[in-house]
Specification:
With about 110 residues, the chain is mainly beta. The protein has one helix at about 65-75; strands spanning about 10-20, 25-30, 35-40, 45-50, 50-55, 55-60, 80-85, 95-100, 100-110.
């Protein structure tokens, strides 16, 4: 599944909250004071991504990635989101995966508390 994001500058990303079931990713052009986008994944069954990253490129998951999720989660996930980010320690891309029962795109300004 490719996540459809609203128009905007979604450069910085951060894993805002994860309680083992619900995952909330925040995005914006600068996360210091606020963010304008959240991806909320419900009933997460598989998660491979860093806590902070920049400029993800969302894409369809490969057959190999879907098989990896099936093997680890034990069954088919309703939503599998794949994206690539630039490696922090050298050239190349790092693949990331999130599998869940559902995902919601929330487009609203959220002030960040110090």
């Amino acid at each position: 599944m490719i996540v459809e994001l609203p128009e905007g500058s979604w450069w910085d990303w951060e894993l805002l909250r994860f309680d083992g079931c619900r995952l909330r990713l925040a995005a914006g052009y600068d996360l210091t004071y606020h963010h304008g986008l959240e991806l909320v994944f419900i009933d997460v069954t598989y998660l491979v991504c860093p806590a902070r990253f920049q400029d993800p490129v969302f894409r369809e998951p490969t057959a190999r990635e879907l098989d990896q999720v099936r093997r680890c989660a034990g069954d088919e996930a309703a939503v599998v989101v794949a994206f690539d980010i630039e490696a922090q320690t050298g050239p190349g891309l790092v693949s990331c995966l999130i599998a869940a029962d559902s995902v919601e795109v929330v487009h609203a300004v959220v002030l960040r508390r110090s």
